[in-house]
Model the fold of this input.
Amino acid sequence: MICFFDTNVLVYAVDAGDPARRERALNRLARAASEGTVVLSTQVLQEFYVITTRKLQPPLPASEAAAQVQRLCAFQVMGSTAQSVQAAIALAQEHQLQWWDALILEAALRAGADVLISEDGQAGRRFGRLVVENPFAG
Done:
């Protein structure tokens, strides 16, 4: 199974300020890694670094955030192209998505992901064979 992780889940995995979500995020990431393929995008890596160094309370030191990004780079990482941006525009328009969510969705679809693991969006929503899963719901 191919699992694409959104930024918010990865941020919770390092967030000392929310131990319950941290544990759920770490467990979901570990399960995905053991059961199949974990996929991220360059957008996710960029957002992760910015959020963990600027918005977390307390923020991660830049060196720790950089080390975390380096570890995350061990997973498959989808880059962006002019064609992927155009595809994200079409997804945003067709599904009335926020821009950054459309970019995430486009990368997940391009990766052939079965599951988009995200706190955003509607849990259970399908985009073809891709289903959105919120690991913090329920």
User: Anything to note?
Assistant: The chain is about 55% helix and 15% strand.
